[in-house]
Automatic annotation (TrEMBL):
Enzyme class: hydrolase
Record field: transmembrane: none
Annotated positions binding Zn(2+) 1: 80, 91, 189
Gene for this chain: amaB_1
Organism superkingdom: Bacteria
Cofactor comment: Binds 2 Zn(2+) ions per subunit.
Protein name from the UniProt record: N-carbamoyl-L-amino acid hydrolase
Stored SUPFAM superfamilies: Bacterial exopeptidase dimerisation domain, Zn-dependent exopeptidases
Family: Belongs to the peptidase M20 family.
Keywords from the named record: Hydrolase, Metal-binding, Zinc
Binding residues annotated for Zn(2+) 2, in chain numbering: 91, 126, 382
Length: 410
């Protein structure tokens, strides 16, 4: 008997996860180390124990269930159980549910993997404390300094949030998996974008995840009376900002790629008053692309355009780089294998780039990693309206099962 995805069983499992943290607006609150996040992990661990898996937890409170030998290097498969505040029913939880369903299908069919399969339900992926704590712990990327200083938007320290739940934060520093102990990491996740739905393709195979440059920009002119200052005697910081913003499509055309994005997301005008010419515009610029040289090219282009706009409007300009996250490439061999399995199963699939961050990109620091995307209705995520069609989910789960059978067969 060939292992087969049991769609009803998978639905029941996903519903079981989403019984935790449900809120009035229809969304889910399972932020990292909240009571609902702790409770869903206990429940999920009991589910895996009932399946006869070897269940364990690490210092970050990620939960694991192993099918096969206890000590041999494993194929790890999973995603995260935490959500953003008022998040959706699929982000993270779907990948965890699919991982366990694949193992259940194998067990039911009597398929014994030559290499063990380890279901992973990672913790704190959504970055309440500014990282991807679960996968960073597994990959050994958490430093003592970061651990001790990490805090959420309300100023709650990660260490305090963990201790309030009876967890010892220091255990994170000794929870890294040794190199070679994880043969590969696979994660199924919703796309969180509109591309697959628009093209009516059930499966996306990300070749990598975009990097992020975060710039802090300040244009300084002269705040003055909106009535008495003639139009040709102004140093209007907002006019400079507008002149820069309108040229973003040209910057992308000149120096970008199809994956490039530039976003001005947060703006403050000073003094921000209806009757005053803005003396200062302070804003963020986020530049994303799948290739570092393209990101740097766009950053340089942005500097030139901003400089010219500042001169034209009589403004001074400062640009600070707040942070730089390099793009990540997923494992070419795993992507080829997923593509070949999708073809064999007659499942339409397309290669793409992930514009969002995922555990799988952190895991590339430890082992070859790859992902399967399924479509998101209207591209919506991190909101109660988040939805994926069950027909697409089934296809994604079938591909994951086929991939795990291939990888675990030796
Ligand atoms: Zn996610």
């Amino acid at each position: 008997m060939e292992p087969e995805i049991n769609s009803e069983r998978l639905k029941t499992l996903l519903d079981g996860i989403n019984a935790f943290g449900r809120v009035k607006d229809g969304g889910f609150n399972r932020t990292g180390f909240s009571d609902a996040d702790m409770a869903v992990r206990d429940w999920f661990a009991r589910e895996m124990e009932a399946d006869g898996l070897i269940v364990s937890r690490d210092g970050a409170n990620s939960v694991f269930g192993r099918y096969g030998a206890a000590d041999a290097p494993a194929i790890m498969v999973g995603s995260h159980l935490d959500t953003v505040a008022s998040g959706g029913a699929f982000d993270g939880s779907l990948g965890v549910a699919v991982a366990l369903e694949c193992v259940r299908a194998m067990k039911e069919a009597g398929f014994a993997p030559a290499h063990p399969i380890e279901v992973a339900a990672t913790s704190e992926e959504e970055g309440r404390f500014g990282g991807m704590l679960g996968s960073q712990t597994i990959a050994g990327l958490v430093t003592r300094d970061w651990l001790e200083s990490a805090a959420d938007a309300d100023g709650v320290l990660l260490t305090d949030a963990m201790r309030a739940q009876g967890l010892e934060p220091k255990a994170i520093l000794s929870s890294a998996r040794p190199k070679g102990s994880v043969r590969a990491f696979l994660e199924l996740h919703i796309e969180q974008g509109p591309v697959l739905e628009r093209e009516a393709i059930a499966i996306g195979l990300p070749e990598g995840a975009t990097g992020i440059v975060n710039l802090h920009v300040r244009l300084t002119g002269i705040a003055n009376h909106s009535g008495t200052t003639p139009m040709d005697m102004r140093a209007d910081a907002f006019a400079g900002l507008a002149e820069i913003a309108v040229q973003i499509p040209d910057m992308i055309a000149a120096s970008g790629s199809k994956d490039a994005r530039i976003t001005i997301g947060k703006v403050e005008l000073v003094p921000n008053h209806p009757h005053t010419i803005p003396g200062e515009a302070v804003f963020t610029v986020i530049i994303r692309d799948a290739r570092e040289e393209v990101m740097r090219g766009l950053q340089a282009r942005f500097g030139e355009v901003a400089g010219a706009a500042a001169r034209k409007h009589g403004l001074s300009l400062s640009i600070e780089e707040n942070s730089f996250i390099a793009p990540v490439a997923f494992d070419a061999g795993l992507i080829d294998m997923l593509e070949a399995e999708a073809r064999r199963l007659n499942l339409p699939a397309r290669r793409m780039i992930s514009g969002a961050g995922h555990d799988a990109q952190t895991m590339t620091a430890l082992c070859p990693s790859a992902m399967i995307f399924v479509p998101s209705r209207n591209g919506i995520s991190h909101a109660p309206d988040e939805h994926s069609d069950w027909a697409d989910i089934e296809k994604g789960a079938q591909l994951m099962l086929a991939a795990l059978i291939r990888l675990s067969a030796g």
